[in-house]
Specification:
mainly beta; six-stranded antiparallel β-sheet
Length: about 120
C-alpha cells in the first residue's frame, strides 16, 4: 500500500481539511479534536465532491419522557460534513451517510510519523 505525504501535523490545525489525489482517487482529510479522518471525495449520491462542503456539528433532538420535543441542539463533539452538490451529510468519525447509516464512504488510513502526516491507499 502506498503512502502519500499530506502535510506537517504542526500546520494541520483542528477543523482543517485537505483534498489530495492518489492515482485516480481523491481523498478528503479532516482534523477534528486532534484526530485525523480520511474518506473518498466521491459522494455516494451522484459522485459530487463529498468532502468539500460545509462541516457542521451534528444536530439532534432532545425528547421529554412523554416523547414530546424539547428542541433541536448542536452536538459539542460530533461533526458532520456535507456534499455541496445535493446536501448528503456524512458522519466525520465513521463516514456513514446520516440519512442512511447502511451506506458509507470509503475510509483511508492516516499515519503520523513525527510531525509528518501521510494517507495510505
Amino acid at each position: 500500500m502506498a503512502e502519500q505525504f499530506v502535510g506537517k501535523a504542526s500546520e494541520f490545525k483542528d477543523g482543517a481539511r485537505q483534498i489530495v489525489r492518489m492515482g485516480s482517487d481523491e481523498i478528503g482529510i479532516f482534523k477534528h479534536e486532534g484526530e485525523y479522518f480520511a474518506y473518498s471525495n466521491y459522494c455516494l449520491h451522484q459522485g459530487g465532491p463529498a468532502c468539500e462542503g460545509l462541516t457542521i456539528a451534528r444536530v439532534f433532538e432532545k425528547l421529554r419522557d412523554d416523547k414530546t420535543s424539547v428542541g433541536l441542539f448542536f452536538s459539542e463533539t460530533d461533526m458532520n460534513f456535507v456534499c455541496p452538490w445535493h446536501g448528503y451529510e456524512y458522519d466525520m468519525k465513521t463516514g456513514e451517510c446520516i440519512s442512511d447509516r447502511k451506506i458509507k464512504l470509503k475510509r483511508y488510513q492516516i499515519l503520523q510519523k513525527g510531525d509528518e502526516v501521510y494517507v495510505v491507499a
